[in-house]
Amino acid sequence: MSGRFTARLVVSVTAADVGQRVSLRRRLPTGEYSDVVGVLESWSGGTLQIRRRTGELVEVPEAIVVAGKVVPPAPPPRRRPRREPDDDS
Questions:
Q1: Burial grade of 20 (CB within 10 A; 0-12, 13-18, 19 or more)
Q2: How far is Cα 64 from Cα 2, in angstroms, rounded to an integer?
């Protein structure tokens, strides 16, 4: 048995998933991989548009997507615990 690990990359996102939160892995021109997570806003003309939680809109050419799937909605932001006011009576 070889010690080499190979991953199976699957793209299970389709144009029908517009409006869903997705995770995509894309191959960059350098040969490296980069992930994009956010809401799939559109898929037309061979380009996917994903809105990140920061509000940034990322355009990803369909041809460079090597893996992708629908993921659960982002958890709500955590609330900081309230500090009790100092009682200086």
A1: middle
A2: 29
Give how far the C-alpha of residue 89 lies from the chain's centroid of Cα atoms, to the nearest Å.
Answer: 52
Average pLDDT, the chain: 89
> How many other C-beta atoms can be found within 10 angstroms of the C-beta atom of residue 40?
24
**DSSP of 10-25, one letter per residue?**
-B---GGGTTSEEEEE
What phi, psi does 17 have (nearest 5°)? Answer: -90, 5
Q: Residue 89: what pLDDT? A: 54
**Mean pLDDT, to the nearest integer, of 39-53?**
97
The pTM (predicted TM-score) of the whole model is 0.76
- SS3 state at 64: helix
Which token pair is 44?
Answer: 């037309």
